[in-house]
Every structure is written in structure tokens, then in C-alpha cells.
Amino acid sequence: MAKPIIEFQHVEYLISTTPARSILSDVSLQIYPGETIALLGRSGSGKTSLLKLINGLRLPSSGDVQVQDRNIRDWDLIQLRRAIGYVIQEVGLFPHLTVRENVCLVPQLENWPAERISSRYVEVLQSVSLSPSVYSHRYPRELSGGQRQRVGVARALAADPEILLMDEPFGALDPVTRAELQREFLRLAAHMAKTVVLVTHDVREALLLANRIVLLDAGRIIAVATPSEFARLAHPVARQFLAAAELSAGASS
């Protein structure tokens, strides 16, 4: 069996308040190369904190997080973050940089040859269905929300990372654009062979995009299931998500 590319071993994450507040408790999870994992839960369940432990934006209070067989405490955190693609809901593009400059930033920081950077820019822009020549000199303010999100994905993929983290990447988009980008994601996932960890509170998105769904509640993992298994879970929190999805689908039909 393949070795996990990401592993959480009895991880606890506390916020230093008085008294200290637990955000994640006794989290153990193995994520394997090429999987798309959805972290599903209500607001405040610990999804984003769990995601940020992978690239060292948070450090565990106890327990261990392993990335590519190395404890994150043993990584140079700058190198760790450059080695992992990261897409957030607000996109996070630098407003003073063009599309090309945003996308090529990490390869340039990693001192890639200019020819390789240019080739990779064309490749990743085309992979997210944007014309490299049309968008090269545009600034983020000149793009629609869907276009900015596509550029954000292209930037995350530019240095060809093995791991891609996505924190509510489609949450701020209108329903039509969101559905378009979900289809784009499925197409990309089928070809790019990345390990993807996706935060969402939308159970329909999790069922559509993920190989496995990790359900969190109050900082604990309460279920890990494939989409077909998740639909049959008896846990009350899972049933609440499924009932909300059915209600939403009924309201939109």
C-alpha cells in the first residue's frame, strides 16, 4: 500500500487564551498521494485550522504532522509553503502584479530558468481555460470573480507542487460560476495527479469533488467516508448536512 503523503498523529491545536481554547483535539488522519480529500464541517469546526497545519501556517500544540515523510517541525517553513499550492476563497492575488507576474512568482523565487517559467505559465493558464496572451498583462482588478479564481488556481499549480490546499475556493462565487469551476476542477484533478485537500461547508461540493470526506465537529474528526459511504452515515451531524443539501436542492428546483 502507498505511504501517506500527509499524516496527522494525535494532533491537538490550542489557542493561547485564558484558559487555552482547543480548536482541534486528537486528530489522526492519513492522506494518500493523488487523493482529493474534502474537509467538511460547520463554521468553527476546525477545517481551516486543520488545513493550515499542513503548510505550517499553524503548528500543532501536541502530536505530529508529517508531510512527505518529514515532520513539519523539521521543514524550513518557507520551503514547505513554496512546495505546496494554496488557493483561498479571496484568491489573494497581488493587486499590483499582472496575471503573468502573479502566476510566475513562486517559480521565479525558486530560480527557475526563464524559458521554463514561460513554458509553465502558458501550460497552467491553458489548464484553467484562460488564454495566456489575452490575460498576461491584465491586473486582478480587471478580472471577474471566476477569472481571478482561475488565476489563483494557476498560481498554486505554477511550481508543480505535489500537494494542493484549497480553502473554500468557490465559496464567494455565484452559483453558475461555481458550478463551472467545479467542473473545471474535476477535469484538472483527472489529469494533474495532485493530492488535494479541500475545505468546504457544502456537502454537495464534497460529494461531487472528493474521493473521501472528512467530517469535523467541534474540532474532532467524527467520520471519514467515501461519497457513497457518506450518504449512508447514521451520525446525526452527517444527516444534518445531507438534509440541508436536499432542502437546498429542492428550493432551487
Q: What tags apply to this protein structure?
A:
alpha/beta, four-stranded antiparallel sheet, 10 strands
Descriptive account of the structure:
A hairpin with a 2-residue loop joins strand 4 (62-67) and strand 5. This protein has a domain at 91-161. It starts with 5 loop residues before the first strand and ends with a helix. The protein contains eleven helices and ten strands. By secondary structure, the protein is an alpha/beta fold. The protein has helices spanning 47-54, 77-82, 99-103, 105-109, 114-127, 132-135, 145-157, 175-192, 203-209, 227-230, 236-252, and strands at residues 6-15, 21-31, 36-40, 62-67, 70-71, 84-88, 163-167, 195-200, 212-217, 220-225. Strands 6-7-8-3-9-10 form a six-stranded mixed beta sheet, with helices on both faces. The longest helix is centred in the C-terminal third of the chain and has 18 residues, at 175-192.
Quick check: average pLDDT? 90
The stretches of 5 or more residues where confidence is low (pLDDT under 50) are none
The end-to-end distance, rounded to whole angstroms, is: 43 Å
The DSSP helix count reads 11
The spatial strand order of the largest sheet comes to 6-7-8-3-9-10
Order of helices and strands: EEEHEEHEHHHHHEHEHEEHH
Helix- and strand-based class?
A: alpha/beta
Query: How helix-rich are the residues, as a percent range?
Result: 25-40%
Biggest beta sheet attributes: 6 strands, mixed
Beta-strand segment tally: 10
Give the radius of gyration: 18 Å
Strand percent estimate: 15-25%
Shape descriptor: globular
